[in-house]
Amino acid sequence: AFIILAIYNYILFANKRYKVIFLFFIISLLVIFSGFRFETSIDYNNYLLLYNNSGYSSSEYLYWFISILHKDIFDSFRLFVFMSSLILIFMKVYFLNKLSDHIFLTIFIFICISFIYVDMGLIRNSYSFSFFILSMYYYINNKRWMSYFYFVVAFFFHHAVIFMLFVYFINKYRRVPSLYLYLILISLVISYSGVMRGAIELIKDSFSYFPYISWKVNHYLVSDAFQNEGLSFYTVRFTFMALLFYFYREKIKNNFFIKIYMIGTVLILLGGFNIQIYAKIGLFLVFFEMLLMSNFVMLFKGWQRILIFYSIILFYSILFFRTSYIFWVNEVSFF
């Protein structure tokens, strides 16, 4: 991350043609770190076991299909990790570049809150997230059926993307009403009170007629996944960002993304009693955060932009080290 920051400082005052070189370098660097990792992060050995078992372990059929196909052809999990990293990181950087107002800052944030968490360990989530980005790219460009198609593809890599289905029900053009602020504040109270945890416990047996959903609900409600408090650092961070974007909504002028981010934050707060739930939502929601922050920093000029820029860099650097410690990426090893 610090190497990237140093390169950005050089490119900031260089010719714009260096942008392509920068992006190529970033993709190469990230692929090396992600593609050549070995027994790194909390799920590496689990994915290795599933790869070697060569079977369908859930209804996320697209992931198991490519995993089984790759094993039949190459029979090398290390090669599977590398090829996945190469394809998925290229997809993410390519489409972030197309959508961002400030690609260097967007990439830095991506590394700090997405790459370090998803691409360094959660392979299925990474596939799903990449195709979700693709679906949003087409949706923003008014190619609805292409967007729906890639959203379904994302779903069959990891079902957690279903939490983001609400984006298709949000008006892309209307202003952000004050209702969104009230929803955030109400959700904060509900999250802090712990009401949602008790409510889900009461109704979970009603899902017994739907075996898969019932299994998922009970899986997400295991005691180890519960939080001791209604609010956590994670949920409060998203709340802070949602409020920041809301109060700058008139200047940012990206109503669609702000509404998505605020509704996503409401879901994170309501699911804040359980890390399995809110972390899955946050995984996809950071896509909009990366792009909104690029909009935000461009609102300022001169020394104000420099101050805001480096404040953002400091904030996300702290998140980078915090996340790398939590997910054991600080103990990264390579083969």
Secondary structure: elements and pairs:
Elements: H1 2-12, H2 18-35, H3 44-53, H4 61-73, H5 77-99, H6 103-119, H7 123-140, H8 144-155, H9 179-193, H10 195-203, H11 211-220, H12 233-247, H13 249-252, H14 255-270, H15 275-297, H16 302-326
Helix pairs in contact: 1-2, 2-5, 5-6, 5-7, 6-15, 6-16, 7-8, 9-12, 9-14, 12-14, 12-15, 14-15
Throw out a few tags for this protein.
335 residues, mainly alpha
Describe the model.
This protein is 71% helix and 0% strand. Helix 6 runs antiparallel to helix 15. It is globular, with a radius of gyration of 20 Å.
Give the proportion of residues in helices: over 70%
Major beta-sheet overview: none
Structural class by sheet pairing and helices: mainly alpha
Low-confidence parts lasting 5 or more residues at pLDDT below 50? Answer: none
What's a quick, concise take on this entry?
The protein is mostly helical.
